[in-house]
Amino acid sequence: MNEIISEIINTIKGSSTLLETELALETVFQRITQELLSTAFKQIDLELLHDYKEQGYEIDSVPNRTLQLTFGTLEFARHRMRKKGEKSVIPFDKAVGLKPRIRQSPLVEMKAAKIASDGTYRKAEEAIDLLTSFSLSHTTIHTITQKVGETIQEWTETAPLQDDRPLKEKKKIPVLFIEGDGLMLTKGKEKKRPEIHRVQFHEGVEYKGKQKRPVLINSKMFESTVSSKEAFRRASLWLENIYDIRQTIVISNSDGGSGYDKDKFHQIIGKCQQHEHFRDAYHVNEKIKQRMYFDKIMEKKMRHAVRTYDFNLVETIIATTESRIKRNDEKAKEYKEELSKLKAYLERNWASLKPLKMRDLPINKGIGVCESNHRPYSYRMKRQGRGFSAKGTGNVAAIISARKNGTFLKALTDKTPELLAELQPEFKGAVRAALKKSKYRPSIGVKIGRVANYGSSSSPMGQLQKLFS
Questions:
Q1: 265 touches 290 (CB < 8 A)
Q2: Measured between alpha carbons, how far is 388 from 419 in angstroms, rounded to an integer?
Q3: Could you state, in order of their start, the residue ranges of all structural domains in the chain?
Q4: DSSP letter (8 states) at residue 119
Q5: For residues 459 and 457, what is the distance between their CA atoms, to the nearest angstrom?
Q6: For residue range 161-207, what is the model confidence (pLDDT) as tens digits?
Q7: Coiled-coil region(s) at which residues (predicted)?
């Protein structure tokens, strides 16, 4: 310990600036950590050999292994044991749970996948290189991310099926919000552009912090690049797993796109106290804008008529707008067709257009959040000049959803064997043995003294002094 402290002091003394000091100490601490951990591994490895030798194993070789850990790259040696008629075994790897040909620790893989779900693989490479004492190539990060994403998707499918809690133990809430929408990526590696189909549910909105930032209560997000039906199926598994909604008012919201009609929500809800469906106001206004682009004045009045939920006024505005179209206008027929389509759209969805404040519900906010929650996905996978396959999109989206749901670590520890691998009893025994051998008493140097004689020369002590003098 004194040597380490002396080295740190000399390093500080030999540096001229704080930046230079920190860079130098970073290297020192990395080397010291690696040396200490390598030495500890060596002692534990030697203790593990005893049991194998008693079973008839002999030392075959002492190969090195390099492992990327969060605090640096560690190279250490351990023994390979061989017994006639048996496969060779490396006691240390077996006891710790290290798989062959794995260069990154489970924690490194988890953190790399997290970083890659927020930015490009090259940016993740730069971040790891900047903030850690090791490096991973962008291709390695891509491989890790895809593996982690596949694991999370598999866990999302199977975890709720393994919970056999009775219905009476499941959560009961007064109101539950469910929304669904699709996110089309701008570029793909395949002919058809990948689309992320998303379904999410939550229990309401609360406001946190001084800025009164809105936060969804117990929000859960589910996605699929296969179809909206698949996304709804995943959401239904978790909905059934978490809640008992027989006495719950369920409020659903969507833009009415293909696969997101009211009946799709009703299918996953099942029996509940009441189901109220809304057509997303933003998309309704966009539809009005799209159909009435040729008459801005009447377009504004139409939005007001829908907002006040007055269908008679809607019909009056349609008729008025049609009368304002000039007969000699070469696009008159096209304009009338647009008005006809708009009227049919409003008639078809009129029940879902009724404003929240006009319905007898115990809430006044909480719908229309699915669109804004596209951001973690769109920021990662849209408008970056990069193409995604449907499979790759699904894996990255699964990581983003798991992080938002707070199930990222749970999914990996449940499904990844190396994360579940417990330290074997023989490993713990070897650690205890190494600890016993490593205990020592610090040296206090050579003691110097003399035989004191405060009595007569005829006394026993006087006679002993005569022998030494």
A1: no
A2: 29
A3: 1-97, 180-405
A4: S
A5: 5
A6: 888 888 889 999 999 999 999 988 876 666 778 889 999 999 998 88
A7: 318-345
